[in-house]
Amino acid sequence: LQYVFVGPLHLVHIQVLTILLCTVISKLKDIGWKLLYIHTNRNDLMYWGLDYPPLTAYHSFLFGKLAQYFNVSWVELYKSRGFEGTDLKLFMRFTVLISDVLVFFTSCYAYSKSLPSHMHLLFLFILLYPGNILIDHGHFQFNCVSLGLYIWTCTLLHWNYDIAAAVFFVFSLSFKQMELYHAPAIFCYLLGKCLYSPLKKGLIKFFSLAFVVCFTFGLTWYPFITDIEQFGAVISRIFPFNRGLYEDKVANIWCSLSVFIKWKEIVSIQNMVCICAACTLICILPGCITLLTNPTVENFNRCSLMSSLSFFLFSYHVHEKSILIPAVYEFHVLPVTILQQIFIVRLC
């Protein structure tokens, strides 16, 4: 219990998320939840189809029900397509603000409180980061939720609440698959702490972490793992290899080199996936080994930044908004003086 009950605010977050999950899952059974990731006449995946993990689906479902309460035409099947009313835009902006306040703001505040007093300015820097504001409040993709859940993870790890941190990271990963960028650092840090603890304590922590991770994944993914075909549909949607090496114009290695080497023409998708995986693994391996053998908070911060940047630069099917993951995490690593300069330059 000492690993789970980490204080009123953190406990409230876990309880609320669990209650919402159970409520939404029970409701989804009544609306054909098995079709959320399958293309049908009533679920046209070509028109902004769901291509994120289940927690995003639950989040969208809750706000969809709220929108239905205010104005049915906002979410009416087929007829709502292309609707751009002022009241709907206002509602959409409020959905981002609500998500920001409940998840992102609280996580940033908690993280800033875990730092020395002279570093509290980080709270303001993270909240006012232009990239996050422009994307979330203009494109409504709610990256603030997955990023906020991950910042909660980092905060809890800094406070040595590893079990609670594992719960929040599973939620983060179940909201946006891009959080896989941070998974190697999380895995190596927690495994390293288990390995370098006394045998009995290390085994207890290892099996506790394994149980909590499996249980949280099982709870979050429950509607979609009871059917193999349905689970396969989910995986194919959240890992769309057929979409290509990268999305539009992305400042990563493959897009930059495509000026000289036409990857899509000379390398098959299967081979390109293997090449990307190998390059990414080579880049993150030194940081992961260092973290595994010396699991300190400083090494964790460095490895997280290295891992997220490596995935952005070398992994397969990189979207331009993926840069938010290493960009936001740089606030945890760089000194405030450097952050001030970066922030001013980007704002200009």
UniProtKB/TrEMBL annotation:
Gene Ontology MF, one: dolichyl pyrophosphate Man9GlcNAc2 alpha-1,3-glucosyltransferase activity
Keyword tags: Endoplasmic reticulum, Glycosyltransferase, Membrane, Transferase, Transmembrane, Transmembrane helix
GO cellular component: endoplasmic reticulum membrane
Membrane topology: Multi-pass membrane protein
InterPro entries: Glyco_trans_ALG6/ALG8
Endoplasmic reticulum found in the keyword field: yes
Primary subcellular site in the record, as a coarse category: endoplasmic reticulum
Keyword DNA repair: no
Pathway: Protein modification; protein glycosylation
Entry EC number(s): 2.4.1.-
Location within or outside the cell: Endoplasmic reticulum membrane
Pfam families: Alg6_Alg8 (PF03155)
Family indicated by similarity: Belongs to the ALG6/ALG8 glucosyltransferase family.
Alphabetized PANTHER family for the sequence: DOLICHYL GLYCOSYLTRANSFERASE, DOLICHYL PYROPHOSPHATE MAN9GLCNAC2 ALPHA-1,3-GLUCOSYLTRANSFERASE
Protein name in UniProt: Alpha-1,3-glucosyltransferase
Organism: Trichinella pseudospiralis
Taxonomic lineage of the native organism: Eukaryota, Metazoa, Ecdysozoa, Nematoda, Enoplea
Encoding gene, per UniProt annotation: Alg6
